Give the backbone structure.
Amino acid sequence: MKLYYMPGACSLATHILLREANVPFELERVGRDKKTEHGEDFLALNPKGYVPALKLDDGDIVTENVVLHGYVADLKPETKLAPAHGTKARLKQDELAVFISTEIHKSYSPLFNPAITDDGRKAAIDKLLTRYKLIENVLADGRTYLTGGTFATVDAYLFTVTNWSNTLKVDLSAFPNLLAFQTRVAARPAVLASLVAEGLVKAA
Ligand SMILES: N[C@@H](CCC(=O)N[C@@H](CS)C(=O)NCC(=O)O)C(=O)O
């Protein structure tokens, strides 16, 4: 398998999950010009032009964060990155995954636009904070991860998008449980290895 990624982008979540599940994979960095580090034409491979894109061993390319996270988890059910399909626990985890995708991930998108106005930035951040308040409430019972005591796909995804708050200067200090969650997830060996591999932190 080959994961097409951009450093620090949402593809980091799939990257983390591949490492957590101990699935063999290669990494291929995609540049802003849509050429990969080995000169592949990314748009020809994936007309959507965005990451993550996962090239399966049969050559097919699959995209969309939530789908890729579930796929990686299902390859190694013993890692418990996602509960079995058809269970209430899977239903609840899928609900969280789509919430992170549509309500948090996509609420960050306008903040990456250099042409955003001050009012636009404030509106985008206000919306993000209402969504984070809900996450803060989930974590308020002292659980280690979003669904309880076990690291799951949604933790990799929430960690990845919340990491953007640092560079985008979104103040999350009102959410201590969320900030503690970020620190806990960052300390996981697979997460640290992913951050190092993407050049986001230096190897210790
Ligand atoms: N619907 C896609 C969106 C993925 C997405 O937003 N990717 C961003 C990085 S976080 C990207 O590649 N942006 C570059 C571009 O669109 O050219 C998913 O959920 O996987």
